[in-house]
Write a sequence for this structure.
């Protein structure tokens, strides 16, 4: 059934753009065979006639090339970002597990071709029809570069509506890693456990003042105020989140206990003091060069004997030029930047913070992302009505790829608890209180 559907779809595409010939299919099969020579992973490859060029219906995932042009571009450009962009345009389509499809991406990214192999592949790819002329491709590249990190690109790719996130987040609207007892626990329950885990680590108590940097839609602020009796000051740079969080506190009757502001953490008053400070899920936007200022600001705002919890994503290699980085910065987080956890800790210590506890939640984030991905896929119709098909595909690819790399260990997420260097720290000698 799947093969018949893809055959029909392929023929419809080709009739609109000039039908592919039998020689094109023969070249395509030879190209796939040489490109994936030695690949033993779970991904099959299908071509524009709806038939498999590698693997069969038993594959965990299949990457379908709807046109010879998409395969030609992948080989001649040697750029895996172009493969993702072909998916955004509908020229390439993964079926089965989209997360598993990243195994093929890893293989292609790591494989080193000899000069002879590159020449053979290039010669075969040149025999496939081109979509655009060289001049058109150069103009496209220049236009794309000009749009990178512009206000328009950020608005188009990142500033989507609250309703969009409601399609696939948990009911509390928590856009960060959950904390699971096991893989069977519901996302909503695991997010409640994460919020409580943070509050326990911070040893929150009535009468304290908590600053939540990057408060999002207000889930942690609400939980801390309701269950731990603290006064919360939440800040965000998102107008959509700010309005939602404000209304949330009014609806729950916590608006006198929780203050939400549209404010940058760097603009907080020097004489403002907080007993506890949290930062959950915004650290990825700071930028490595801004670490000193960020941690200096936290230290300045934190009272003596205070505690700071930083919950942020790291990677295993720094933020080098890779297809993953290029895709994320171009289509999801234009200002995103990751580095090793060792670099994060080094910067914290340099700025006078003492690290008290470090916990990796890597496996928890892989599970969280799979929940989000299933939610997004189930809500596809609504998501596309709220945004468009391209936005749906961007986020589907992003969530699946993130789950893959958290599972593999290329990405990680750490909760780091810190206080003033050398101070008497308000934490017990043991962790027993966290698990009672």
């Amino acid at each position: 059934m799947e093969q018949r559907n893809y055959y029909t779809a392929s023929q419809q595409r080709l009739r609109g753009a000039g039908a592919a010939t039998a020689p094109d299919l023969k070249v395509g099969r030879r190209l796939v065979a040489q490109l994936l020579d030695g690949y033993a992973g779970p991904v099959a490859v299908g071509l524009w006639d709806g038939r498999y060029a590698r693997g069969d219906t038993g594959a965990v995932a299949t990457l379908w090339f709807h046109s010879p042009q998409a395969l030609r571009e992948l080989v001649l450009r040697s750029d895996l970002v172009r493969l993702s962009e072909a998916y955004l345009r509908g020229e390439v389509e993964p079926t089965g597990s989209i997360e598993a499809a990243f195994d093929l991406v890893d293989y292609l990214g790591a494989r080193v071709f000899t000069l002879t192999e590159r020449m053979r592949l290039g010669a075969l790819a040149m025999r496939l029809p081109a979509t655009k002329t060289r001049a058109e491709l150069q103009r496209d590249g220049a236009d794309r570069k000009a749009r990178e990190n512009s206000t328009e690109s950020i608005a188009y790719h990142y500033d989507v509506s609250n309703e969009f996130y409601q399609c696939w987040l948990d009911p509390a609207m928590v856009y960060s890693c959950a904390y699971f007892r096991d893989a069977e626990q519901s996302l909503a329950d695991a997010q409640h456990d994460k919020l409580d885990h943070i509050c326990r680590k911070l040893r929150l108590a009535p009468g304290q003042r908590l600053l939540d940097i990057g408060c999002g839609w207000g889930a942690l602020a609400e939980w801390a105020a309701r269950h731990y009796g603290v006064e919360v000051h939440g800040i965000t740079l998102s107008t959509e989140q700010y309005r939602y969080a404000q209304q949330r506190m009014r609806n729950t009757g916590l608006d006198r206990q929780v203050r939400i502001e549209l404010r940058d953490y760097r603009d907080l008053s020097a004489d403002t003091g907080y007993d506890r400070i949290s930062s959950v899920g915004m650290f990825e936007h700071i930028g490595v060069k801004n670490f000193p200022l960020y941690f200096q600001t936290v230290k300045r705002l934190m009272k003596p004997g205070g505690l700071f919890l930083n919950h942020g994503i790291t990677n295993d290699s720094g933020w080098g030029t890779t297809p993953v980085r290029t895709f994320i910065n171009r289509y999801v987080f234009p200002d995103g930047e990751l580095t090793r956890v060792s670099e994060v800790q080094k910067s914290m210590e340099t700025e006078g913070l003492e690290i008290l506890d470090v916990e990796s939640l890597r496996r928890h984030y892989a599970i969280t992302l799979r929940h989000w991905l299933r939610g997004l896929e189930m809500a596809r119709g609504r998501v596309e009505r709220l945004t468009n098909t391209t936005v749906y595909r961007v986020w589907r690819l992003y969530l699946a790829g993130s789950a893959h790399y958290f599972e593999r260990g290329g990405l990680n997420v750490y909760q780091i608890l810190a206080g003033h260097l050398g101070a008497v720290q308000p934490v017990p000698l043991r962790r027993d209180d966290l698990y009672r």
